[in-house]
Amino acid sequence: MNILERYHAMEYGPAPEARNEADAWLAARDFSKALFIDGAWKAAASGKTFDTGEPSSGKLLAKVSDAGAADIDVAVAAAAKALPKWSASSGYARAKVLYAIGRAMQRHQRLFAVLESIDNGKPIRESRDIDVPLAIRHFIHHAGWAQALEKDFPDHEPVGVVGQVIPWNFPLLMLAWKIAPALAAGCTVVLKPAEFTPLTAILFAEICERAGVPKGVVNIVQGGPEAGAAIVNHPGVQKIAFTGSSEVGKIIRKATAGSGRKLSLELGGKSAFIVFEDADLDSAVEGLVDGIWFNQGQVCCAGSRLLVQEGIAEAFIAKVKARMSRLRVGSPLDKNTDIGPLIDRTQLDRVEGLIAEGARQGAVCWQPDAALPASGYYHLPTLATHVSPANILAQEEVFGPVLAAMSFRNTEEAIELANNTRYGLAASVWSENVNLALHVAPQLKAGVVWVNGTNMFDAACGFGGYRESGFGREGGREGMFEYLVARLPVGPAIKPAAAGSAQPVEQADGTAIDRTAKLFIGGKQVRPDGNYSLGIAAAKGKLAGEVGLGSRKDIRDAVAAARACKAWPDATAYNRAQVLYYLAENLSGRADEFAARLVQLTGVTAKAAREEVEQSIERLFLYAGLADKFEGRVHQPPARVVTLALHEPVGVVGIVAPDNQPLLGFISLVAPALAMGNTVVAVPSERHPLVATDLYQVIEYSDLPAGAVNIVTGRSAELGTVLARHDDVDGLWVFADVDTCARAEADSIGNLKRVWTGNGRSLDWSSGEAAGEAFLRRAVEVKNVWVPYGD
Ligand code: NAD
Fold first, then answer.
1. Is the model's pLDDT at 507 over the cut of 50?
2. pLDDT band for position 500 (50/70/90)?
3. Residues 372-394: what's their mean pLDDT?
4. What is the C-alpha to C-alpha distance for residues 676 and 693, in angstroms, rounded to an integer?
């Protein structure tokens, strides 16, 4: 066919990217020594290797050293040895290293892209234009954070040695998201790529050698789940950053519970792609192609659930099918390819299995009439219609080129359907009415919302999920916090409630008002469901009063009341500020009474008690003042788009308050949670709950809407466990003994709630460090809403 004939036929000719450089690179290496530890290349101690193959052909690419626990020990030791010098080096010194990495990657940009496409199967257009440039930008962007560290993050220090485990779908980009912020913060790392895609990480390690990264600062080990688990469980690692499946994320949450190590989890998703009837439909179709067929749908934030407004559903689906028929499935190294192979035979089988099950459950699955390449793990783009919200294709992450389509009638229904998932990673909203889009975005339970767009990422903008999509953010300012620890005024270890504490005691000490405090749920004082009470001892051992013994049922009622309270999260920040000021005012009116109570219960001097009350009032004032000041930011990524990093309340927050300084401790935790619009279920000090039950009247007179604060007295360990297991609790803060803290973390995996504990240590609540942004940050989720502009 000559050029003219080809032009008239409008047929594509192949446009292969040259692979000789990549093949030469592969041929020149000894992959049996592929562990990059302490600046040297090592074989696995066991001598074992694993195979990495080419998804487009199934052919073997390399036999790569397979690290075991012994190799991880060596890597962690190298990272620990390098830590003091690296973390003490100046921000400028670290910035230069990060910049040098970015520049060296730029010089090998094409090799990175070709290797990535060979090893992972993703189309070269994607690796060349998206993965690699974004990874480079990440290093260069974070050079700036290294230098800004001291000024921008006062009272923070590097967390230490970091263990990082990443998946195969964006091998280089995920590596960049992990390593760049860690190095900027002054941490040293041991990173494990996924066993399917080791190659670009090996090239990256070579870049580190050349870019002057000091030995031991970056250690890259290759291997599978066993090596991953060895990193996660290593006592020398102070923080784990994991990206991968929700299933493994939960295993890691459980394994690290009680270890005091920091954890961030970037997990799976089932993101909604919402098309309103006033959307630009052709743009929305192009967005959808990118949303679900980018990287063959093997994307954590893939727009895999299409929600389209009823009136345009038929026309839109017809356009989608027409566009699907034009998608080119083929070699990842062909520049015209839209869809390459899936990563592996196992993934192909999984996708096929899910489609078959979805069809069995009533979905109608459609694929374009196209031929697949003869070898490799290819799968045609697939559209499932007639999908009920409960269908497996609407609920499970397929991680393949499969779109599940549903329709909705109005805005409320769209939001409800979008949120009908246990995940919460991303969403796209398509409408020409920006008012509507910005009305919907805050109501979506997702960490990232793209308006009239999809899959936009940038190093300056945080990325991460809600709910079972994990916790923590990568990128930007919020991502830096993941590698830093705030200096808190840590005190002695908290003793577990002694057998005798909170037990009925014999006799009143005469100073108590004879009154049994009830629980405070939904704005009312209610009797505990079990109708049991606990006698509370005064400092001198006599009975100071009785409180209700809260149970699982009471916590359930309290959580339901907290969830039902919309008035508080919906209130303006200014409104919330006024209510908190009013609480302070009312507490101040009863300061003498509270001081006397503290003397009675804790035995502190009258002066110390008075001080604790004053500080509690001051703290309420502080958070009232900050309620409308701890705000989000606006990012301007290098594109015609603004990214609104909004601070949203976490939701329903459970709080297990400490025994020490029981009034101040209680208020220091409840007030920041309330200030940011959360509703609270608080378990007050087990030993001294009467200071909290005395607050009921203060609360009742303070215009706090019913359900905003609920107080359940009783045994901290038991009630903490109920809160941890409750899937409608979004966040949990525990300041109790070490076992209660550990259990809270281990028991939180149902919905992967955000758990913050003192790791069994008390805080000095009177210190200025026990208040402020470090607390408010725990009380918010950052949602990044991307809004493009221009014609
Ligand atoms: P995976 O969880 O099976 O594996 C991820 C990594 O964890 C691999 O390196 C693997 O070797 C390691 N691993 C496996 N078992 C382990 C264990 N018990 N302990 C420690 N490490 C272990 O996930 P995958 O199949 O490689 O990747 C796909 C998943 O990753 C999808 O669910 C996807 O949504 C998710 N993902 C999330 C994001 C995000 O930012 N939220 C980004 C990319 C991918």
1. no
2. very low
3. 97
4. 23
CA distance 331 to 353: 24
Q: Is 165 in the pocket of ligand 1 (CB under 6 A)?
A: yes
Q: At what angle do helices 171-185 and 132-152 cross, to 10 degrees?
A: 20
Which carries the bigger pLDDT value, residue 701 or residue 502? Answer: 701
**538-574, pLDDT tens digit by residue?**
998 889 999 999 999 999 999 999 999 999 999 999 9
Q: What is the residue with the minimal CA distance to atom 22 of ligand 1?
A: 225
Phi first, then psi: give them for residue 53, nearest 5 degrees: -115, 175
Q: How many CA atoms lie within 13 A of 491 on its CB side?
A: 18
Question: Which one from 187, 208, 300, 461 is the annotated catalytic residue?
Answer: 300
Answer whether residue 576 shows pLDDT above 90: yes
Look at ligand 1, atom 40, and give the residue with the nearest C-alpha: 266
Q: Is the dihedral of CA 657, 658, 661, 665 positive or negative?
A: negative
Strand runs labelled E in 650-678: 652-656
Q: Check whether 752 has a pLDDT greater than 70.
A: yes
- Catalytic residue chosen out of the listed positions 266, 396, 397, 718: 266
Cβ of 752 less than 6 Å from ligand 1:
no
CA of 430 to the centre of ligand 1 (A): 30
Q: What is the pLDDT confidence band of residue 8, given thresholds at 50, 70 and 90?
A: confident
Pair 206, 50: CB distance under 8 Å? no
The pTM of this model reads 0.96
C-alpha closest to that of 190 among 296, 331, 74: 74
Note the pLDDT of residue 504.
47
Separation CA 339–CA 135 (nearest Å): 22
Q: Measured between alpha carbons, how far is 41 from 386 in angstroms, rounded to an integer?
A: 54
Judge if the beta carbon of residue 245 lies within 6 A of ligand 1. Answer: yes
Q: Using the mean position of ligand 1's atoms as its centre, give its distance from the Cα of residue 568 in Å.
A: 37
Assess whether the C-beta atom of 266 lies below 6 angstroms from ligand 1.
yes
Q: Give yes or no for residue 510 having a pLDDT over 80.
A: no
300 is annotated as an active-site residue: yes
SS3 332: coil
Q: What are phi and psi of 414, to 5 degrees?
A: -60, -45
pLDDT exceeds 50 at position 106:
yes
The long-range contacts involving 566-573, CB below 8 angstroms and separated by at least 24 positions, are 567/705, 567/708, 568/674, 568/677, 568/678, 568/679, 568/704, 568/705, 568/707, 568/708, 569/649, 569/651, 569/677, 569/678, 569/679, 571/677, 571/705, 572/628, 573/627, 573/628, 573/677
Q: For ligand 1, atom 14, which residue shows the shortest CA distance? A: 225
Q: Does position 91 have pLDDT exceeding 90, yes or no?
A: yes
Looking at the chain, the whole-number percentage of residues with pLDDT higher than 90 is: 94
| Candidate of 119, 177, 191, 243 to mutate for ligand 1, largest count of ligand atoms within 8 Å of Cβ | 243
The CA 271 to ligand 1 mean position distance, Å, reads 18
